[in-house]
Amino acid sequence: MAVILDHAGPREVLGDVGLGGKYLTFRIGKEDYGIAIRHVHEIIGTMSVAHIPRAPEYVRGIINLRGKIIPIIDLRLRMAMEAKQDTEKSCVIVVDVQGQKGPVTMGFVADEVSEVLDIAASDIEDAPAFGAGLDTAFILGIAKMKSSVKILIDINRVLGGSEIVQLQEIA
């Protein structure tokens, strides 16, 4: 894995071909997102979570997944979107994110999973510059598909800096 340094700090580049590779795509609201498949452990249905007192608003709680405690993040809230009730298509994507002491397993809620796509580096553009008022540091790039776009996110930037990762590392 290589790293790009830009105005927003280090950003990961997957492999020798840049950002090209396999991505799990999912929906949140009307938008399509993608994360590198290498971060994904599994996809499970939504389930009851144990709430953590005084946790940040975006932390749904924790679950016991086959004997391992997994924090669950509401990705909508973590990315400053409006909250929404889960539906029958909602799911939890269990991923590894990089903490200061190594990988941390956690899950995030998506409205629905779409598919795994092999996206060529030539089909990925940098995130557009919106000026100083909009933080796009979590965006790896924008994948241009036939008639749509997929926002490729750096799951380490979205979840890796969260307070819940720091709590997991202490435990």
Distance between the termini: 28 Å
Mean pLDDT: 82
Q: Please give the order of strands in the largest beta sheet.
A: 10-3-4-13-12-11
Give a count of the beta strands, DSSP E runs of length 2 or more: 13
Number of helices: 3
Radius of gyration: 16 Å
Helix and strand sequence: EEEEEEEHEEEEEEHH
Main beta sheet: strand number and arrangement? 6 strands, mixed
Assign an overall shape.
globular
CATH topology call? OB fold (Dihydrolipoamide Acetyltransferase, E2P)
Structural class: mainly beta
Q: Which strand-content bin applies to the residues?
A: over 45%
What is the CATH architecture assignment?
Beta Barrel
Low-confidence stretches: 1-17
Please identify the top-level CATH class: Mainly Beta
Query: Level of helix content?
Result: under 10%
Give the tally of structural domains: 1
CATH superfamily: CheA-289, Domain 4
Provide keyphrases for this structure.
OB fold (Dihydrolipoamide Acetyltransferase, E2P), 49% strand, globular, disordered N terminus, 171 residues, 13 strands, mainly beta, five-stranded mixed beta sheet
What can you tell me about this protein's structure?
With 171 residues, the chain is mostly beta strands. It has a single domain, classed as OB fold (Dihydrolipoamide Acetyltransferase, E2P), CATH 2.40.50. It is built from three helices and 13 strands; from the N terminus they run βββββββαββββββαα. The strands form three sheets. It has a six-stranded mixed β-sheet. A hairpin with a 2-residue loop joins strand 1 and strand 2. The radius of gyration is 16 Å and the shape is globular.
